[in-house]
């Protein structure tokens, strides 16, 4: 159940960012497209991102991990190409989108886990 809730929270974050961030648009049925974007983003983060991280490890080390922002943006641009109702205008917009999405997810997940206190 936690996976479905996290997926819905990510879809909500995608919807909010597409509404407020210029250069990111959801078209068509925006709620369904936001859920599809969250699902495809999760699948790509599981399957493609580890491969990209391993292949770009030397440049990631040289840039002290900042190249991971570019990898996240490339994943966002790949989602843009795979889904018709989701568009990102540029690489810089994708980088900003990925940073803001991570921040929003962290906030929402921390609010979700606030009820769970250790004994």
| Secondary-structure element series | HEHHHHEH
The overall number of domains is: 1
Q: Helix/strand-derived class?
A: mainly alpha
Largest sheet: 2 strands, antiparallel
Q: Uncertain runs with pLDDT below 50, 5 residues or more?
A: none
Distance between the termini: 23 Å
| Rg, nearest Å | 15 Å
Query: What's the pLDDT, averaged over the residues?
Result: 92
Number of strands: 2
Helicity range? over 70%
Strand-residue fraction? 5-15%
The shape is: globular
Strand order of the largest sheet: 1-2
- The number of helical runs is 6
Keywords:
119 residues, mainly alpha, globular, two-stranded antiparallel sheet
What does this structure look like?
By secondary structure, the chain is mainly α. It has one domain (2-110). The protein is built from six helices and two strands. It has helices at 2-20, 30-47, 49-55, 57-62, 67-82, 91-112; strands at 24-26, 86-88. It has a two-stranded antiparallel ribbon. The radius of gyration is 15 Å and the shape is globular. The two termini are 23 Å apart. The mean pLDDT is 92.
SSE blueprint and pairings:
Elements: H1 2-20, E1 24-26, H2 30-47, H3 49-55, H4 57-62, H5 67-82, E2 86-88, H6 91-112
Antiparallel strand pairs: 1-2
Helix pairs in contact: 1-2, 1-6, 2-5, 5-6
């Amino acid at each position: 159940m936690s996976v479905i809730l996290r997926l819905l929270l990510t879809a909500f974050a995608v919807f909010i960012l597409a509404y407020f961030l210029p250069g990111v648009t959801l078209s068509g049925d925006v709620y369904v497209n936001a859920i599809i974007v969250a699902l495809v983003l999760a699948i790509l983060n599981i399957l493609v991102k580890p491969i990209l991280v391993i292949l770009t490890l030397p440049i990631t080390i040289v840039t002290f991990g900042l190249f991971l922002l570019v990898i996240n943006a490339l994943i966002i641009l790949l989602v843009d190409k795979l889904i018709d109702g989701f568009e990102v205008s540029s690489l810089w917009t994708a980088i900003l989108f990925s940073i803001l999405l991570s921040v929003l997810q962290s906030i929402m997940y921390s609010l979700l886990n606030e009820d769970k206190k250790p004994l």
